[in-house]
Amino acid sequence: SDDRTRDHECPTCAKRFFTKNDLKRHGFTHSTERPYSCEVCQKAFRTTNEVKLHMAIHVSGTPYKCEYCGKEFRTKGCIKAHIKYHIGDKRHKCSICGHAFVKSADLKRHVAAHNNEKNYKCPECGSAFTRQDNLKAHMMLHSRQGVVSCDKCHKEFINQIYLKRHMHIHKEAKKKPYECQWCPKTYENLEGLRRHIKQHVGDEKFVCEQCDKKFITAIQLKRHLWLSHEEGSPYRRSIL
């Protein structure tokens, strides 16, 4: 058995660690400094490990394939983390549907989706999300940080990974031309896409006062006012 004690306490959040190095690595999660940058795109990170993980988006190909489901990964670290979901001890079980998870955090997110709990709210437009990572992805569109665009159709994405997934629609026949901006899913018609997007951002609660058309986000409403009601739009200057 491990007789060590967690003698090293974080002064910020009081979390305790076995070694000074563990505490030091943890300390980076509270820091706003990003002294390490990517040599390819100059994006800055808090640790060298974050840089290594980021570099995967610049590497072509996915040489590591999961023997259980066939999913492919760019790095050994990614496939090792993924395999735990196949062979790990799934001790955290959902009381609603019985689905089990390796991590308690995954179960918590899963239950929130059951209850449609949108606890993560965007301070810019009010859109709410069931998952924090979905909110972070949404906020990147507001801040424009890391946003990239398709050179074929000029659609914008939060990073290179989503852009690469999107590019297949320009190489194959467009059976499902309506693509979600939050994830790679595509749909045959606009109504199907709208129903899907509600899983990410909620109901169409933003209504145009001039034509009663409804939108899911304030940004979509502002864009509509600019395009459809240019002369009467009070938002014209704010979205330029």
Textual characterization of the structure:
The chain is of the alpha+beta class. Among the domains are: 122-170, Double Stranded RNA Binding Domain (2-Layer Sandwich), CATH 3.30.160; 173-230, Double Stranded RNA Binding Domain (2-Layer Sandwich). It is 33% helix and 13% strand. The protein is built from eight helices and 16 strands. The strands form eight sheets. Strands 1-2 form a two-stranded antiparallel ribbon. A hairpin with a 6-residue loop joins strand 15 (206-207) and strand 16. The radius of gyration is 22 Å and the shape is globular. The N and C termini lie far apart (63 Å). Mean pLDDT is 76; it is low at 232-240.
How would you summarize this macromolecular structure in one to three sentences?
This protein is of the alpha+beta class and 240 residues long. The protein contains eight helices and 16 strands.
CATH fold call of one domain: Double Stranded RNA Binding Domain
What form results from the Cα inertia axes? globular
The N- and C-terminal alpha carbons lie at a distance of 63 Å
SSE string, helices as H and strands as E: EEHEEHEEHEEHEEHEEHEEHEEH
Share of helix among residues? 25-40%
Structural class: alpha+beta
Radius of gyration: 22 Å
How much of the sequence lies in strands comes to 5-15%
Please state how the strands of the largest beta sheet are arranged side by side.
1-2
CATH architecture of one domain: 2-Layer Sandwich
Low-confidence stretches: 232-240
Largest sheet: 2 strands, antiparallel
- Number of helical runs? 8
Give the class-level CATH name of one domain. Alpha Beta
Task: Provide mean pLDDT, rounded.
Answer: 76
